[in-house]
């Protein structure tokens, strides 16, 4: 029997966390740059990549298509935008797609409230989205720093994870200012769902599209809007390749 999830708006958070209200400390540091911290980061990223091989290719039986499109940009910073439909795989798969030691990802501050794991996130490249103007400024500064040092930044603009959702939810163009401000290429990463050969767990096919580079003669706002529209269109097009629904989502009218 297919599981059903009911929602009111496509921006709803259908997966609740015990740490939803966690707040970052005022002295929180977005980047770990001290020698000992770099050592920890190297080990944690290496461990995350090893786990990703087992989980992404083994347990989830995922296939990544178009990864070669990133190869010419491996020695510079870039941004990857993906649909957020896998609670675990969306965390670890990027370690396989880009270079693990240059991996970064924007994440909700609530994740830092998870015991033990929350303490390791920053060493693995996670960058919390700020809860205040000051924290937002710190995030912008951190993204600018990593993009100048070959950082591969992964962003899920839908914000909340909807497990096994086969369509693309609407998302704002807010996060698309990062590639424009830092003059870096952007890519789309779309997870799609195929009927399994056996069992009920869908097979995953992940498509990489791009690079998307806006016309720098346009205003910053128009570049941001163009980039949003191009990546959204690519993700919507790829999402149509899904042919299996493991969870049925039904919208409830108010």
UniProtKB/TrEMBL annotation:
GO molecular function: acyltransferase activity
Protein name: Acyltransferase
Organism, scientific name: Limosilactobacillus mucosae DSM 13345
Record keywords: Acyltransferase, Transferase
SUPFAM superfamilies from the UniProt entry: Glycerol-3-phosphate (1)-acyltransferase
């Amino acid at each position: 029997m297919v599981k059903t999830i009911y929602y009111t708006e496509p921006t709803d958070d259908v997966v609740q966390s015990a740490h939803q209200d966690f707040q970052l400390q005022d002295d929180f540091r977005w980047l770990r740059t001290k020698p000992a911290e770099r050592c920890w980061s190297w080990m944690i990223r290496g461990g995350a990549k090893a786990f990703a091989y087992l989980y992404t290719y083994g347990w989830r039986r995922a296939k990544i298509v178009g990864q070669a499109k990133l190869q010419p940009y491996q020695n510079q910073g870039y941004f990857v935008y993906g649909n957020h439909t896998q609670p675990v795989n969306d965390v670890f798969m990027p370690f396989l797609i880009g270079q693990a030691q240059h991996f970064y990802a924007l994440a909700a501050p609530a994740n830092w409230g998870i015991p033990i794991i929350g303490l390791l996130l920053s060493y693995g490249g996670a960058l919390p989205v700020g809860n205040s103007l000051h924290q937002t400024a710190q995030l912008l500064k951190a993204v600018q720093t990593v993009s100048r040092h070959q950082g591969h930044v992964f962003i899920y603009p839908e914000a909340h994870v909807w497990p096994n959702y086969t369509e693309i939810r609407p998302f704002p163009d807010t996060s698309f200012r990062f590639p424009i401000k830092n003059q870096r290429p952007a890519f789309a990463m779309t997870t799609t769902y195929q009927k399994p050969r056996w069992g009920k767990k869908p097979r995953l096919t992940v498509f990489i599209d791009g690079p998307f580079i806006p016309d720098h003669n346009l205003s910053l706002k128009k570049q941001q809007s163009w980039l949003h529209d191009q990546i959204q269109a690519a993700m919507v097009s790829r999402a149509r390749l899904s042919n299996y629904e493991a969870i049925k989502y039904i919208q409830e009218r108010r």
